[in-house]
């Protein structure tokens, strides 16, 4: 017999849905923000965030259409409920010289159940900052700000955002857990310095999906403590490719493991699929890495393990890395290389690479140096299926 008690789960579900739908909206215009391209709006944005974060049911911070100048701002939790940060308009970095050498522009910190979305635009105005980036020749160079940082953010989504001309990297994830990024559009010139698209460190269960990254440095870089990272359907180029590392530059680095990049493409990038470690280096581990179904279009160094990474040529060429690289699969990598050596596995003499697998590799080269080739140093593993260039394992 049907009774009222059978309706209780439905009522509970509807009450949750109703609670979500009635979450209050905190419009930054109501806090004094002005979309006039010259008023600095950090205080208005901060007050809207504070009220949304303090709402018992959670809240929605709304940035309507228009252009808002914003200085460095931090949105901190923990919050009492979920918060949606909805960017409909355009956020433009302040040109105040005091804001130039900061490690952040927009930061979310200590927040759970955050959604950042809206289809809006982030303009870092990096062209004003790039002349100050002299890190290639100055080891004491000053930091430039990432466009958007996420520190200690969990169970969250970042989606439908557009980032242009960051001063340093575009997005940085530090110590985050269960974060999904999708439908992200990133753009900066190929020559812009240190403009990583998405940089990940000490973070777990991160997914990056259905995005386009055109920038001057790594499209996605994963450093110490990056674990359970999944990248799918991402278009990269220009840029430096998908990079794991650099690793081993500091003591006691956490391992990097369980990285999967698949169903993606690279076009005219400096590197393709790269694992890079310092030499000399402190010991750590990079393992359980899969690159699958990747299309290359005129990519330099399409498959590259570089355990002699030294970007400014200040290293001892005889030094060896102590980073162990283990269980790495390159499968279904195909297209064209802009360099003769389409496969380069340059591993460490101290800790040779172990269990490297090349499966169905088809990379053509049509340049003047000769036929496409591969090079393997201190690399142990096997080749399977079709191999162009012929396998060196």
TrEMBL record:
Keywords associated with the record: Cell wall, Cell wall biogenesis/degradation, Glycosidase, Hydrolase, Secreted, Signal
UniProt-listed Pfam families: Glyco_hydro_28
Single Gene Ontology MF annotation: polygalacturonase activity
Single biological process term from Gene Ontology: carbohydrate metabolic process
Protein localization: Secreted, Cell wall
Gene3D superfamilies named among the record's database cross-references: Single-stranded right-handed beta-helix, Pectin lyase-like (2.160.20.10)
Origin: domain of life: Eukaryota
Signal sequence, start to end: 1-19
Family as reported in the entry's similarity comment: Belongs to the glycosyl hydrolase 28 family.
Protein name: Glycoside hydrolase, family 28
